[in-house]
Amino acid sequence: MPIQECSRHGVFQKWHNALFTLMFPLLAGLSGLAQGAQVDLSVRTPSLSLPAGGTGSRVLTVTNEGQSTTAPVELTFATPPYININLAVGLPAGCTFIYQNTDPLVPSVVRCVIAGGIASSQSVAVSLPVVAAASASPGHRFSRAIALPTGADVEVASNNNISGAAVSIESTGGFAYSGNTNLYVGSDSPALSTAAASNAIRVVVGNNGPAATTGQVRLTAATTFFENFVPGSLPAGCSYLLQNADPAVPEIVQCFVPAGLASGGSQFFDFQVNLPPGGPTGTAGGFFTAVETTAPGDVDPDLSDNAFNSTNVVFTPATAEVAQPTVILPPGTVTARPPLVPPAATGTGSAVDLFISSS
Length: 359
What we know:
single chain; mainly beta; six-stranded mixed β-sheet; 1 helix; globular
């Protein structure tokens, strides 16, 4: 090689080495960012007790038992029937409505961003103001929350990042149990398969009387997290209030029985849902459902059976699930449900309880 070319080559080599020395830390940082942290988020939601019309705070505590992260953590919360966000107080900093509805039968959905992430073994608490509807009768209403990482971070154990603790409506002794209608709602609790393109869930609304409703009956239904209505599959008389493909956002529909319900009458709604990948397996809280009559003259004195939260077992099967029988019982009936029949092959996944124990 001529001397002149060797000189040019040496200059290029020195420039290349210097550039690599300057860029290596940046490239290493970008590589770490692309890989992300392996986090293990959990949500704890202590129980809350409120009188009808009362106010309080729904405290959600997110803990990271995995690697530290500075990437934002998203916490999503859905109100249960008869519980709303207290707008007189407003949402805390970092929280916004994904869907807002002051109707006591329709969930509102709030997302809070923990902007600085959560260090390993550390917790962050978020307090959301809530108010119980004045019409709420005594009983348990299950709110729902989920915490998920963002960006390149990965959730390594999704068994406990969903919480479904109860909001208990206290008895005030002020309810007059007399009226002309008595509506109820319930649903079956089938095994749901993550491999299935569609899973069927049947909801029943009924009227125990003594009189027929004089107006139409309205049902609201909301999916849980990592559960969506199959597009184009809603039953007749149903429409979306919230349609969102984000697996961390529930979808909400409302349905009408235009002719109302006679005393002793009932109507079924068959919903089809699918389960996006990445969700927890095991026992999970399913549908929120709530029912009401829309006519002012129809008085339902007992709303304790007007809302229902089903329980489903979610499988990630190696083979197709064995179909389970549908069992829907009228209120007050107690019987044993047929046992689940797992697939013959292994690989159904481990069963975990997604509901965190109240404290």
